[in-house]
Design a protein that fits this description.
The complex is a heterodimer. By secondary structure, chain A is of the alpha+beta class. Helices cover 20% and strands 24% of the residues of chain A. Chain A has twelve helices and 27 strands. Chain A has helices at residues 3-22, 82-90, 97-101, 262-267, 300-305, 319-322, 331-341, 362-365, 485-491, 494-497, 509-513, 523-552, and strands at 38-39, 64-66, 69-71, 110-113, 124-134, 158-163, 188-192, 196-202, 212-214, 241-246, 252-257, 271-277, 288-289, 293-294, 308-317, 351-354, 368-370, 375-383, 388-392, 397-402, 405-406, 414-415, 417-420, 425-431, 444-449, 467-471, 515-516. In chain A, strands 14, 15, 16, 18, 20, 21, 22 and 24 form an eight-stranded mixed sheet that branches. The longest helix of chain A is centred in the last third of the chain and has 30 residues, at 523-552. The termini of chain A are close together. Chain B is α+β, with helices and mostly antiparallel strands. Chain B starts with a helix and ends with a helix. Chain B is elongated, with a radius of gyration of 27 Å. The chains are: A alpha+beta, B alpha+beta. At the A-B interface, strand 5 and helix 7 of A face helix 1 of B.
């Protein structure tokens, strides 16, 4: 081959390469006259959808009396187990075997004895709490165990305090789903002012924890001269127990939380409401409110001034933190990743929950159900890592207490946004008189965090802590809000929160606002690219072989 | 005066204690429970269908607690033994001892449902203490799961296996016996000797063809 031909080949290869580059097929392409067609999500035929309400225990909704305990009506889709409530009011030691068998409580979970002030109710209260991991890892396969969905398909790793239970932590041996008793948030705990309360933490978890009684009157040491403040330096290690002792002199809405590696452990879910009720005669308080929400056996003082009472507990989750317990089984790896590799100063929140659920699951047990002309007591706590600004549509409620301290009438503010610093609590009087100020009338009114990230789940709206204040006439027989059927069927869908489904794919607008399909590939471009790049490659191989052959000659 | 005031309380307490003791050992659908723990589906006399008679009595003491996990790296709770092997149709008399201050369970799964509802034998201790119960194993050669079902206790080490007649294999993730299905990942210790071995092997691998070609 002469030098002239060699140059010619090189020029030809260069020209072909230039053409190939010019016609390089792309992953994104501008549309021609007609844009790609809309594609439809077929989830209606898959397992992604779930019923808005499974309606497992309709018989639990009605007002009833069990073990002489009056249990108020609860119209929600998932009402609390009334047998649990009876045992939590009377104490496990004061109910029949039959009632106890309808609960998950251990025989020593809650012991109530000794009417010390002779006013008709027990004053020595012994509470036992365990620590339960939800959505944790398993060495037996790529699945989570003791699962608990905060919203459709969303299973972040969580830790909760739970009343000491007995029996299985799973629904049954063939299931990985946690028994409904074990759930977020940690239960609200109620005691009476002046009660002698022993709170024993039996640490069933694989990392150390404590109970710090935030805002609750408690001496620094217990009667044994041991830690009573639940601070970081007195961890209760796995397999061990510790008893905190209190005799609270002041009533109000307080908190309890873990104070070991506090930033992480609180955000993992180890916090709950702790309420000290005013001392009144015959005041058998509901010691645990599982999953917070409606209090079906309010205290004597609350019943005197209010028609209903709700515990509203706001918490948030960083998905990177909660994923740590799902990524390993070795407690040493988990402790290292959580405390030394995870950095909370470089983190933010992804999930926002009201009473352990994010919308739309908040509709199952996180609604406020009202009628006109009621005064409803709301106890609100913010355990987000940042401030919350709770807004109730159609209403202005009145703050009666801050951080468990009652305000005099002149200091009680009537507002429609309630700002709550992290760790802060307020008591509200929600007055439903239709006067254009306190209430604009019946409706299925949203209430939510107005720090708008709080209305999303990992960025998907509507999610987060959105819930509904529903007037009774607007609930169906399963406790779900009427007039929302289409929206609900769209949102009780794992694919929606997995971001696989168009947000506005509804009715006539499904075509107009569904997902655009893929664009047709430009075949001319693909052919030109294929031919030129192939020819250039072939020429390179040919020229190399010719060159080698010439050298051998 | 104070003593007099206390009298009704003492009487009340005695009554409560009385109510409590009537609970103790209460039998409820195969369950016996008291304030220390519970036993479900114990069976000391009903024979499995494939057993003409009890082949013999085996006494097994099982301790549960975090101290038994010390010998297994990366575990938090464990039984003191991870495997037992018994003859077909044995009656096992179990003494279950909880060495921790928290709740632990001993559950055996996969048993015949006509003798053991849900195929399960279940002992539970609410804290430190001891329980005794018996069960009769079927004649089939099989490996049964033994575990504590509290959230994360099996996952963090409280898992064992009970073999009848040598069993039909090992279950996964039994501490010290079998590999997990999903093992944790740890950083590799690239120490000097490991690096040296790798470099030498690289050198040998490179030189080998050269030497072979030269010698031909």
């Amino acid at each position: 081959m002469t030098f002239r031909y060699f140059i010619l080949f090189i020029l030809l290869i260069s020209a072909l390469t230039a053409v190939a580059v010019r016609f390089l097929p792309k992953t994104l392409q501008r549309a021609d006259v007609i844009a790609p067609a809309t594609v439809y999500h077929q989830s209606e035929e898959t397992l992604s959808l779930e019923k808005p309400c499974s309606n497992e225990h309709p018989e639990w909704r009605k007002e009833q009396i069990i073990e002489d305990v009056k249990i108020a009506e609860s119209l929600s889709c998932e009402p609390d187990n009334p047998y649990d409530i009876a045992a939590m009011v009377k104490g496990v030691n004061n109910v029949s075997m039959n009632t106890l068998m309808q609960t998950n409580l251990a025989d020593d979970a809650l012991i109530k004895t000794d009417d010390l002030d002779h006013d008709g109710d027990p004053d020595i209260i012994r509470i036992k709490l365990e620590v339960v991991e939800l959505n944790g890892a398993s060495p037996d396969g790529n699945f989570l165990i003791n699962t608990y969905d905060i919203a459709p398909g969303i299973q972040p790793g969580l830790w909760v305090y739970a009343p000491k239970s007995r029996g299985m932590a799973l629904k049954n041996f063939n299931s990985v789903v946690a028994t409904p008793f074990l759930r977020a948030p940690s239960p609200t705990i109620r005691v009476e002012q002046g009660d002698k309360v022993y709170i024993t933490l039996e640490n069933t978890h694989y990392l150390p924890h404590t109970i710090h009684l935030h805002g609750v009157d408690h001496p620094w040491h217990n009667s044994q001269g041991e830690d009573n403040d639940g601070a970081e330096e007195h961890p209760v290690f796995p397999g061990t127990s510790h008893t905190y002792e209190i005799k609270p002199r002041h009533a109000g809405t307080m908190l309890y939380h873990c104070h070991v590696q506090t930033a992480q452990h609180v955000m993992m879910g180890l916090s709950g409401l702790f309420i000290v009720e005013e001392n009144r005669p015959d005041n058998w308080v509901q010691t645990f409110n599982i999953g917070a929400g409606k209090v079906r056996h309010p205290s004597v003082a609350v019943q005197k001034s209010y028609s209903q009472e709700y515990d509203l507990f706001y918490q948030s989750i960083d998905k990177r933190l909660s994923a740590i317990i799902q990524g390993a089984n070795d407690p040493r790896l988990i402790a290292k990743r959580m405390s030394r590799e995870y950095n909370i100063t470089e983190s933010f929140e992804n999930y926002f929950m009201l009473n352990g659920h994010s919308f739309p699951f908040t509709l199952r047990d996180g609604m406020i159900v009202a009628q006109e002309n009621e005064n409803i007591k709301l106890r609100m706590a913010n355990m987000h890592r940042a401030s919350a600004a709770i807004h109730i549509h159609g209403h202005k409620a009145t703050i009666t207490a801050y951080d468990g301290v009652e305000q005099t009438e002149g200091l009680q503010l009537t507002r429609d946004v309630f700002d709550l610093a992290p760790g802060q609590r307020i008591d509200l009087n929600l007055d439903t008189q239709n006067d254009g100020l306190h209430s604009y009338g019946p409706g299925a009114w949203m209430f939510h965090d107005h720090a708008v990230a709080g209305t999303t789940s990992d960025g998907m709206e509507p999610g987060g802590n959105v819930s509904i204040l529903a007037y009774k006439s607007l609930l169906d027989e399963q406790g779900m809000p009427k007039l929302h059927d289409e929206l609900l069927s769209q949102l009780f869908n794992k694919d929606y929160y997995a971001k696989k489904k168009a947000v506005f794919e509804q009715g006539d607008f499904a075509h107009l606002l569904g997902d655009p399909g893929l664009i047709e590939p430009d075949l001319t471009q693909i052919i030109i690219f294929g031919l030129t790049s192939g020819l250039a490659l072939g020429l390179i191989i040919a020229i190399t072989r010719l060159y080698k052959r010439k050298q051998h000659q | 005066m104070n003593k007099l005031r206390l009298m009704p309380i003492i009487i009340g307490l005695a009554l409560v204690a009385g109510i409590k003791s009537s609970w103790a050992r209460m039998d409820h659908e195969g369950m016996v429970m008291d304030e220390k723990g519970m036993i479900m589906n114990a069976n000391s006399d009903k024979l499995p269908k494939d057993c003409p008679k009890i082949s013999g009595d085996v006494a097994i003491t099982i301790h549960a607690g975090r101290k038994h996990a010390l010998k297994f790296n990366g575990k938090m709770f464990a039984f003191d033994r991870q495997e037992w092997d018994v003859k077909p149709c044995s009656r096992i008399n179990i003494t279950f001892i909880n060495d921790d201050q928290i709740r632990h369970q001993l559950m055996i799964h996969g048993l015949p449902g006509y003798l053991y509802p849900q195929g399960m034998f279940h002992l539970e201790l609410y804290g430190a203490g001891e329980l005794k119960a018996s069960l009769i194993m079927p004649g089939q050669k099989k490996t049964y799961l033994v575990h504590c079902e509290l959230a994360q206790h099996m996952e963090k080490g409280m898992k064992a296996q009970l073999k009848v007649d040598g069993g039909d294999g090992d279950l996964p993730s039994i501490p010290g016996i079998s590999k997990p299905v999903r093992a944790d990942v740890y950083p590799v210790d690239w120490n000097n000797s490991a690096v040296a071995v790798m470099l030498i092997c690289l050198l040998i691998g490179t030189l080998l063809p050269v030497i072979v070609i030269r010698n031909r």
